[in-house]
Amino acid sequence: MTPLPRILLGVFMAVAPLLAQDTEQEKEQAEKEPANKGVRSVWKKHPSFRAGDWLRVDFRARFQLDWITRDPETKPGGGLFDFTRKRLAIEGTFLRWFEYEVSRELSETDFPWKDVYGNFKLNRSVQVRGGRFRIPFSQDQLTGPTNLDFIDRSRIADRLAPNRDTGAMAHGSFFEGGALKYQAGYFFNDGDNAADRNNNRTGENTAALRLTGRPLSKSGLFGSLTLGGAFNRAGVPEGLVSLRGRTTGKETFFSEVFVNGTRMRTGAEFSWTPGPFALKAEFISVREQRLGQGLRQEDLPDLLERGWYVYGTWAITGQNKARGLARGRGWLLGGKNRFGALELAVRAESIRFASDTNAGRPSRTQRAANILQTSDRAWTFGVNWYANQWVKAQANFTREYLEDAFRAPIQGVNLYWVYKYRLQLSL
Questions:
Q1: I want to staple 278 with a disulfide (CB 3.0 to 4.6 A). Which of 9, 286, 291, 313 is the partner?
Q2: Which residues in 95-188 belong to E strands, given as ranges?
Q3: Could you tell me how many helices (H) and strands (E) the chain has, helices first?
Q4: Domain ranges of the chain
């Protein structure tokens, strides 16, 4: 049997028994908590251990199997199976005011320990988190991998946002329904995404701030409309440690250049989820100093990395996006949820690398004053099937155009297609 039919067979075998269990699961969740609130085990979406009202331990697992092909093929071997994620986690609460999570990736990865933190909750407005977790920057990067609308994050979230690091953060929300939220933190380094090819940290202590708000929170149609902004600043040691550009197919199209000084990120974000639709957009700008990096040790113009994305989704089966497609009821089959939710998605995006000057002859060298600009512009078309609250299948078709064909994965070729299929199981 060829690989693709094996995937389809595996999807069917995984989904069929869970579809039958979904209705029973909903009934169980609708039931009230038992009168006996002593030590007990509970299954609500995932197994959980409870001890009265003072301890909750949830056991979580996430598995993602991908099938990837490229045109033209940039790596030998053609189609490729990839167990992208095999992640186990424990999370819960202690005495109601202390929350915790410990998660580890079992697949081969550069950073196996994911979220490892504790969160002290004085009240809704004042909370303090410490440990290893995502630096508050970029709504796309802050979205968990099992909740993404596309198989891959946008290029700006994957390459320009910092991702996880170790530090501390104050956060909370104000006003009715948490209409205004803040996150302010300080971290030892500049996140996993800023690591070099050998997984060495390229940024020093990072200060981060993010604010989001729903200005029309009391409006029915526009109540979910969210606007946000973020900023962070990190020191960058002298060396060949700038951020680099990579395609959806994980190929480098912009290599590191020499930097020294500070790395500053600014970001703006937009999100709106009316009914079965979702519309999201984001802009990120990164500026890296190049102090003393000229051939005569003169200061060079800053390296600029900028990009954006806009995407929309539509649950054609009618479920409410904000309430969760896996649990919602659609208009198909008289409101029954027998076949889950089917969603269409499309995303346009761009990421660009250049120096903060147009003076002089542009060059691709690592100490050029005027770095020759290059960019990656992409369209992604996707289909998501939410079989139930545990099983999700996705198909993405991405068209990428690289501005500088000389630095492309295949020299002289600008246009690339990437086809990805994913089966996800989460408990």
A1: 313
A2: 98-105, 113-121, 127-134, 164-174, 180-187
A3: 3, 20
A4: 3-29+36-426
Tokens of 120: 């002290």
Determine the residue type at 238: E
Q: Label the pairing between strands 226-239 and 206-213.
A: antiparallel
**Closest to 177 measured CA to CA, from 124, 256, 119, 114:** 124
Q: Angle 422-161-392 (CA atoms, 0-180°, nearest 5)? A: 20
Pairing of strands 80-94, 245-246: unpaired
Say which CATH superfamily domain 3-29+36-426 falls into.
Porin (2.40.160.10)
Which residues share a beta bridge with 288?
263, 303
Token digits of residue 4: 């693709």
Q: 141 — phi, psi (to 5°)?
A: -70, -30
C-alpha to C-alpha distance for 347 and 278, rounded to whole angstroms: 12
Q: Which residue has the tokens 């054609």?
A: 316
pLDDT in tens, the chain (427 residues): 445 445 544 544 554 454 444 544 444 444 455 555 788 888 888 899 999 889 999 999 999 999 999 999 887 655 677 778 899 999 999 998 999 999 999 977 788 999 999 999 999 999 999 999 999 999 999 999 999 999 999 999 999 999 999 999 999 999 988 899 999 999 999 999 998 888 888 888 999 999 999 999 888 899 999 999 999 999 999 999 999 999 998 899 999 999 999 999 999 999 999 999 999 999 999 999 999 999 999 999 999 999 999 999 999 999 999 888 876 555 454 455 567 899 999 999 999 999 998 888 999 999 999 999 999 999 999 999 999 889 999 999 999 999 999 999 999 999 999 999 999 999 8
d(CA 64, CA 214): 33
Q: How far apart are CA 303 and CA 299, in angstroms?
A: 12
Q: Is the peptide bond before 3 cis (omega within 30 degrees of 0)?
A: no
Dist CA 309 CA 287 (whole Å): 19
Residues 6 or more apart whose Cβ sits within 8 Å of residue 123: 172
pTM: 0.89
Name the token pair of 259. 């930097």
Q: Answer yes or no: are the C-beta atoms of 202 and 236 closer than 8 Å.
A: yes
